[in-house]
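Quick question about two entries, pasted in order.
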Amino acid sequence: MVLDPRVEVLVAAGAELGEGPSWDVRSGRLVWIDVPARQIFQTDVRTGVSDAIEVPLPIGAVASRAAGGFIAALEDGFWVVGTGPARQVARVPEARPGLRFNDGKCDPAGRFWAGTMAYDQSAEAGALYRLGPDGRATLVLDGVTLSNGLAWSADGLTMFFIDSPTQRIDAFAFSPSGGEISDRRPVVHIPPEAGVPDGMTIDVEGGLWVALWSGGAVHRYLDGHLDRVITLPVSQPTSCAFGGDTFDELFVTSASDGLSAEERAAQPLAGAVFRLRPGVRGLPPASYIGA
């Protein structure tokens, strides 16, 4: 197998559903999850060695917490983990069997956002939530099918969001002070043959990097247009995040979930975490500022 020279295998993890990479500025490590394994991994990117934190429920997203440990979106709501026994911060009223949290991220002010989906991907069964510093979860957007990638512009005035089955990236006007969103509009349309848009991040030039599930690649969109494609040796990349000392490295998670025996044999790196050197820097992530 010949890899794109911009692509390096960081961890040959074989994750069933590797997801949610984020850079932990405090430790200088990459944080990512395996959803059904109920584990958060912290990887030293110099050695590829990972430590794991087990959580009590399936996990959809995680972010660093300013007061220590992590804020995590588990199956029924928001939890603090990594500072002793897991502690629930907020259970969302709409939580019910058959739903789980999926992707999530902190906005520039330190509020944590995460969305839900049905296990069977029923249409419009999910929602997008905002967890404030007071520990209150607010439903911001309902009628979501598969809540996925989130990103904010460098000036904090635009939020980007992916509901995967729409095959779009949508933008919202964003209020930095209160975290309200308005004026939803599509800014990128992704053809189905390119794959399903999954996790997303943004670079200092405003380029949106999107992992394409079933597309075997990460795409960069600039001003609404496809600007760059980096092909991966797996068909199911799930999400991406910038990290490293100067945020010039792009880390990509992937999944082996749902692959046949033949597909797994053809993709021995399915479920790995990759490091890309895309030639552009990302924005440092925010940490959750709640208790």
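Here is the second entry:
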Amino acid sequence: MSATRRMSRRGFLARMAGRAGAALAAVYVLPGRAAGATPPSERVTVGCIGMGRQAVYSNVRFFLGQDDAQVVAVCDVDAWRLDQARQQVTSHYAKAKRSGVAGGCVAATDFRDILARADLDAVMISTPDHWHVPMAVAAARAGKDVCLEKPITLSIAEGRVLADTFRRTGRVFRVDSEFRSHACFQRVCELVRSGRVGRLHTIRTGVPKGDVGCPPQPDMPVPEGLDYDLWLGPAPAAAYTEKRVHTPRSFARPGWMRCRDTCEGMITNWGAHLNDIAQWGHGTERTGPVEVEATGTFPTDGLWNVLLDFHVRYRFADGVQMIYETSHPYVRFEGDAGWVEAGYGNRRVTVSSDEILLSPIRPDEVHLPRVHEKRDFLDCVRSRRRTIADAEVGHRTTSLCQIGHIAILVGRKLRWDPDREVFPGDDEANRLLARPLRSPWTL
């Protein structure tokens, strides 16, 4: 048996050397456009909807740094967050002395005011999960291209609506997950799809455990400056309490990520990252498994009610088994000729033998695209090509997680038809494919 070998990305580059090593070293340089290269009339105009921590710390910053993009509008139901975002955009462009689009950066509470703008090409949606599909579908129908935070859906049924809408309208869509941009995940997927582990038989993915529970919370007055009814939107009506939403005047980790009416927790949150890589490496990113069984632990009481831990086992039509569980963020592919693994925390590729890792991918084998997720989006907005993680891919990744969630809820092994997207002959499980949406937010 070959000894287990671990190699960091730096060590891998040193050993590969030459042209192959130089190419890999260039994978994750944050891309941009030379200052002043794009005239204002040719920039992609972007509206940012949802101005929480992910938007402010990551998403808005990227678009501000791209010469061929211009942030022209920001939107949030929280007045303080909205003002912070407006200041972030206007101060950046003032310091850069950027010639702007007429009217500067508009700030709006209602996303529909953003979508109605004729000068807007695209939107970056960074809201809580329960708003993802209603907003993205409305944007596509309004003729806007969409970059959407993951997990992109809160149910399998609305995911199908999303994918069909973007296919029908021809709008550009990108799942805003960065994992396909990381060299370690790209490398293991290329090795697997080029046959370096032989016949694939098992995939393993892991994500961190969920947060501990939260005791029952009292009803509270809605903070000044928060349009709570619009924040709830399609979610079931519920009295305001801070830990259901987010801490006022703060970008701390929000409570909505632990409430099933607004988020499904780690099973879809981190799962949308790691299981996307599993699907990419397996070549099943536009389909799904045929069988699933799972166990998991929910809090016994209190406000927060997403899974604390889980263990899911899938079977695909080609016989490949996939095991998905709470542990740490990684993906591993096992075949009859060896195995490869990539971890998020250390960005390492771990292999069963050096021969696998050092094996060059020939020109006639699988070479996966290497591009920053938002750069992929902007490039495709301009070219009208399909992104490498479009609505169908994003839906299949999220639904893979949701199939496991449903198996935990019903407590038994389930058959799954990935073509019709139903559990054959199982009415109880099929009732969990959709979620009720509050009027007027039906799709």
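Reply: The longest strand covers residues 200-207. The two ends are 55 Å apart (CA to CA). Hope that helps.
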